């Protein structure tokens, strides 16, 4: 099964006919179908599939020299990515890393590579946090960065608890024991900006991930009639939200950070009612933890001041905050150099990844990025050209062969 064939097989799964984007939320029909596809693709390659009590998957290329195909030896070389998507996401964010991993295994076999360490192709569940709000949930649970007690209480938009969704999908919530078996992790991913396009490079290597966080902003006011309530008598929480969204954008520009309100809920959400409550989620990312904290503090201060003037109130609750990630410099250098086509450039990223969770847990980690000509991601317009994807596969195969050799 070639890269192209695998890619064609995945195209229709979870794709919206109207937007062309993907809806592959954890434990839904599309994601379940993708998990079955993974199991079939791994099994067809003779990989031993290990699933855990969350739906995380690893297809193991166990090495005869380890003496056992049942229990993989320690020091495995792990690759892979995720198969879930954001709401109305692109085709590449996640699946490119999984399909490329299988294609890299095929390429290594064609080249006669006989690895001395086990190689695993991983899929982590709920990487995007698009259903339960916490990104990289599958890898966080594997790494112990989030406990089952914390995770099972997370709720989706319909109020379904994570714990119930996991059990409803036939799992028991137990993460796989992975950290002590893995010597390094290399995740291939589509680039989510224009850094490689601007430098005319098909592939690059990530140096690290910016600190980032998600914060819930609750603006509380007073519901009232949109026609009969005089403007000066209102306590309209939408105004605090609107001003805060503008302030976040301005502060991020001033500080070289990123700030986005991409999700908002309004109560009662009626055209002819002043709202009683607006809840909005801020996604903020900065180059340093200090800059991130300063950005969120300033946005909170400005929002609170505005809410006070409107006779409303603002409460800000951090839902998740991730520190800076520096990928392993020696590993990154090994991935970036010694290719037939020369060295790949190093670039920082502002996106979160399971690789960041594993790196924070102490696993030497690197990421390979494949050029995205639109620079657009988390949207149906996300793209990568086939020749660039194949350069990525080859770079990944080189890397895995060297690491496992
Ligand atoms: C995940 O893709 C994120 O960075 O939001
Ligand atoms: Mn991703
Ligand atoms: Mn993503
Ligand atoms: Mn991501």
UniProtKB/TrEMBL annotation:
One of the Pfam families matching this protein, by short name: Peptidase_M20
Family in the record: Belongs to the peptidase M20 family.
Protein name: Allantoate amidohydrolase
UniProt keyword list: Hydrolase
Coiled coil: none
Xref: SUPFAM superfamilies: Bacterial exopeptidase dimerisation domain, Zn-dependent exopeptidases
UniProt xrefs under PANTHER family: ALLANTOATE AMIDOHYDROLASE, ALLANTOATE DEIMINASE-RELATED
InterPro entries linked to this entry: Amidase_Cbmase, Bact_exopeptidase_dim_dom, Peptidase_M20
């Amino acid at each position: 099964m070639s890269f192209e064939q695998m890619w064609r097989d995945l195209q229709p799964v979870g794709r919206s006919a109207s937007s062309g984007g993907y809806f592959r939320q954890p434990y839904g029909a599309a994601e379940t179908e993708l998990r079955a596809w993974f199991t079939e693709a791994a099994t067809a390659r003779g990989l031993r599939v290990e699933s855990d009590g969350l739906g995380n998957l690893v297809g193991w290329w166990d090495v005869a020299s380890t003496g056992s195909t049942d229990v993989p030896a320690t020091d495995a070389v792990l690759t892979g990515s995720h198969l879930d998507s954001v709401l109305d996401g692109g085709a590449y964010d996640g699946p490119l890393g999984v399909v490329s991993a299988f294609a890299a295994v095929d390429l290594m076999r064609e080249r006669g590579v006989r690895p001395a360490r086990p190689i695993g192709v991983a899929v982590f569940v709920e990487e995007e946090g698009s259903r339960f709000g916490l990104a990289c949930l599958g890898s966080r649970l594997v790494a112990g960065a989030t406990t089952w007690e914390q995770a099972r209480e997370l709720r989706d938009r319909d109020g379904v608890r994570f714990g119930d969704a996991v059990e409803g999908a036939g799992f028991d919530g137990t993460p796989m024991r992975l950290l002590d078996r893995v010597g390094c992790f290399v995740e291939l991913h589509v680039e989510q900006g224009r850094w490689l396009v601007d430098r005319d490079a098909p592939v690059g290597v990530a140096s690290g991930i910016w600190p980032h966080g998600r914060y819930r902003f609750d603006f509380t006011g007073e519901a009232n009639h949109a026609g009969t309530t005089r403007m000066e008598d209102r306590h309209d929480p939408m105004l605090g939200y609107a001003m805060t969204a503008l302030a976040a954008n301005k502060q991020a520009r001033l500080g070289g950070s990123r700030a986005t309100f991409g999700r908002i809920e309004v109560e009662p959400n009626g055209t002819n009612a002043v709202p009683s409550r607006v809840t909005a989620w801020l996604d903020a990312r900065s180059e340093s933890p200090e800059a991130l904290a300063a950005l969120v503090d300033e946005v909170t201060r400005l929002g609170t001041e505005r809410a006070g003037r409107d006779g409303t109130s603002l409460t800000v609750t951090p839902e998740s905050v991730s520190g800076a990630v520096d990928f392993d410099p020696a590993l990154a250098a090994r991935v970036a150099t010694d290719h037939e086509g020369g060295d790949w450039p190093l670039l920082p990223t502002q996106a979160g990844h399971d690789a960041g969770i594993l790196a924070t847990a102490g696993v030497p980690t690197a990421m390979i990025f494949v050029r995205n000509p639109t620079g657009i991601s988390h949207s149906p317009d996300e793209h990568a050209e086939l020749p660039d994807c194949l350069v990525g596969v080859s770079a990944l195969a080189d890397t895995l062969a060297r690491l496992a050799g």
